Amino acid sequence: MLNIGERIKIVRKEQACISQDEFADLLGMSQSHLSLIESEKSLPGSYLLYRIHGTFKINLNWLLTGNGSIK
């Protein structure tokens, strides 16, 4: 099963098709923090998860748990 950092990376690369810089900018965060999250060296906060859900129309249950469909 994918971890949350890997799921966020899937959203960025496969759903949004954008760079870490662009993704981070859209979400109001730094690219370096996003890199830490994607590599599982840091965990995302609830505000960031909600922003990803709202901005990219991602299923929040999938984002949190990996269960269900991505959209």
What is the CA-CA span between the terminal residues?
18 Å
- What is the total tally of β strands? 0
What share of the residues lie within helices?
55-70%
Per DSSP, the total helix count is 5
- In this structure, how is the largest beta sheet organized? none
List the helices and strands in order: HHHHH
Task: List the main descriptive attributes of the protein structure presented here.
71 residues, mainly alpha, 65% helix
Care to describe what's here?
- The chain is mostly helical.
- It has one domain (4-65): 434 Repressor (Amino-terminal Domain), CATH 1.10.260.
- The protein has helices at residues 4-16, 20-27, 31-38, 46-56, 60-65.
- Helix 2 (20-27) packs across helix 3 (31-38).
- The protein is globular and about 30 Å long.
- The two termini are 18 Å apart.
Q: What topology does this entry show?
A:
Layout: H1 4-16, H2 20-27, H3 31-38, H4 46-56, H5 60-65
Helix pairs in contact: 2-3
What's the short story on this structure?
This protein has helices spanning 4-16, 20-27, 31-38, 46-56, 60-65. By secondary structure, it is mainly α.
